[in-house]
């Protein structure tokens, strides 16, 4: 006998048009090989500059900021190559990469970032939670550069729990006032040059941010304890992020946030985060619409997801639009890489009428895993409902196929809006076990199910 949960799902699907399975000509996955052919990691001349030759000392105490700066400048002036971080623990403030520079963190090497906010001054142009401003420099930063990389089997340690960062937001800390002020500036159209934070303010900087860059590589490094988002390409193109490990425990420390960026390949990475694992973004509210650059052509493959919220996430800062996101063969809550938190939603899409814009095409296949904390797919078009808006918002073309997950509250939580329906959600050849409750489906058109089994019953 079908469970009550299965009957509810079947009834919801039968009330929606388009139950026939799309034929192969509609298969979005045929675009992935073309996208991947367009993504090529940068290459660097076979020259190297050892930071110890510029005065760096790997004792974990000596300030090596000037040594990093000088080594990067020398490498760039010579036409590019490798800035080598040898074994040891090297304390530093902000590192600013230049074109043609590969920052190589050797096995046994650690870059330990200062816990003093003044080490990230002067302010730089950045995007903070999707709104442009001037703020503390990200720990590793590049703007307007080509052919830049962070590689090696060493570690980047943000030391966030040793610094003041948590106190800035926890228990009603001072970050909230600056956050509200920046968002109001974005909504009011205040010129970006006047949105200056930094000293005397409390907006935590990202760990690694590439702004307006082309040909970017982050490979193999382990990244510990960022103060905020971990790897954040912004308005950038041709990005490869591969075989990295992220461990974060502070609030709002996403693993990787491609933002208003295109042709991004994230693969063979491990994420243990206190927020979303991979979160695709494109700017927030009026400021995101002003910039108006979407994220598109993003491929995520063979990653391990352990994070407090989403596995593959879109939004909530999506006001520039998001199109063509593909994720495959990822493992949710892998026993081989247990995280601090179980994933709440393997697929999590957040939008709203204050954000506006669109999400068109989020495609998942071959996910496996267990122990999902809430629903397997949560699409929420009423995200941040306390921030009312009147803009049209579109979320459409969400697919999942060939997925096997054991343990969740439900398979689907689909929250469309009465004024803006969620459109075209398709599940194909999926098996879900250990599902304890019914789906929730509101204002959704074109829900299609084919060979979907829940607790052993086809629905």
Give me the secondary-structure topology.
Elements: H1 4-14, H2 32-37, E1 48-50, E2 59-63, H3 65-77, E3 81-85, E4 88-92, E5 95-96, E6 101-105, E7 109-113, E8 124-128, E9 131-135, E10 140-143, E11 146-151, E12 155-157, H4 165-169, H5 175-188, E13 208-211, E14 214-219, E15 222-224, E16 231-234, E17 237-242, E18 245-247, E19 262-267, E20 270-273, E21 278-280, H6 285-291, E22 295-301, E23 304-307, E24 310-314, E25 322-328, E26 331-332, E27 345-350, E28 357-365, E29 368-370, E30 375-380, E31 393-401, E32 404-408, E33 410-415, E34 422-435, E35 440-442, E36 444-454, E37 457-458
Parallel strand pairs: 1-3, 2-4, 3-6, 4-7, 5-10, 6-11, 7-12, 10-13, 11-14, 12-15, 13-16, 14-17, 15-18, 17-19, 18-20, 19-22, 20-23, 21-24, 22-25, 23-26, 24-27, 25-28, 26-29, 27-30, 28-31, 29-32, 30-33, 31-34, 32-34, 33-35, 34-36
Antiparallel strand pairs: 8-9, 36-37
Write up what this structure looks like.
This protein is mainly beta. The chain has 2 domains: 170 residues, Pectate Lyase C-like; 205 residues, Pectate Lyase C-like, CATH 2.160.20.10. Helices cover 12% and strands 42% of the residues. It has 6 helices and 37 strands. The strands form 4 sheets. The chain has a 25-stranded mixed β-sheet that branches. The N and C termini lie close together (12 Å). The N terminus is likely disordered. Belongs to the glycosyl hydrolase 28 family. Keywords: Glycosidase, Hydrolase, Signal. GO terms for molecular function: polygalacturonase activity. It holds the Pfam family Glyco_hydro_28.
């Amino acid at each position: 006998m079908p469970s009550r949960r299965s009957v509810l799902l079947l009834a919801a699907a039968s009330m929606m048009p388009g139950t026939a399975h799309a034929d192969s000509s509609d298969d979005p996955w045929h675009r992935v090989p073309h996208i991947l052919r367009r993504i090529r990691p940068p290459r660097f001349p076979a020259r190297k500059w050892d930071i110890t030759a510029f005065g760096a000392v790997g004792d974990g105490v000596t300030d090596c900021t000037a040594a990093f700066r000088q080594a990067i400048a020398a490498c760039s002036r010579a036409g590019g190559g490798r800035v080598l971080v040898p074994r040891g623990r090297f304390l530093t403030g902000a590192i600013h990469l230049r074109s043609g520079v590969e920052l190589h963190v050797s096995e046994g090497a650690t870059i330990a970032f200062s816990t003093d906010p003044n080490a990230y001054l002067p302010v730089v142009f950045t995007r903070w939670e999707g709104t442009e401003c001037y703020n503390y420099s990200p720990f590793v930063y590049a703007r307007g550069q080509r052919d830049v990389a962070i590689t090696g089997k060493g570690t980047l340690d943000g030391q966030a729990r040793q610094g003041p960062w948590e106190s800035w937001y926890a228990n009603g800390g001072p970050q909230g006032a600056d956050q509200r002020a920046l968002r109001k500036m974005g909504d009011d159209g205040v010129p970006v040059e006047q949105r200056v934070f930094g000293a005397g303010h409390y907006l935590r900087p990202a760990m690694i941010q590439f702004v307006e860059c082309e040909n970017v590589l982050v490979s193999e490094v382990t990244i510990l304890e960022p103060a905020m988002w971990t790897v954040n390409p912004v308005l950038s193109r041709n990005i490869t992020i591969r075989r990295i490990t992220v461990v974060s425990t502070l609030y709002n420390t996403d693993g990787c946030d491609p933002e208003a960026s295109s042709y991004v390949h994230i693969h063979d990475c491990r994420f243990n985060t206190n927020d979303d694992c991979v979160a695709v973004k494109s700017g927030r509210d009026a400021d995101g619409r002003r910039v108006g650059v979407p994220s598109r052509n993003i491929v995520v493959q063979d990653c391990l997801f352990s994070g407090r919220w989403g596995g593959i996430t879109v939004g909530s800062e999506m006001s520039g639009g998001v199109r063509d996101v593909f994720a495959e063969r990822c493992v949710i809550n892998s026993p081989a890489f247990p995280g601090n938190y179980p994933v709440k939603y393997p697929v999590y899409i957040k939008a709203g009428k204050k954000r506006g814009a669109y999400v068109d095409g989020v495609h998942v296949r071959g996910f496996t895993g267990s122990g999902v904390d809430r629903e397997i797919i949560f699409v929420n078009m009423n995200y941040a409902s306390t921030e009312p808006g009147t803009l049209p918002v579109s979320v459409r073309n969400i697919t999942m196929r060939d997925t096997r997950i054991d343990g969740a509250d439900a398979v689907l939580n689909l929250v469309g809006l009465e004024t803006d329906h969620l459109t075209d959600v398709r599940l194909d050849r999926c098996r879900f076990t250990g599902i304890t409750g019914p789906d929730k489906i509101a204002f959704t058109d074109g829900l299609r199910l084919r060979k979907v089994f829940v607790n052993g019953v086809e629905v």
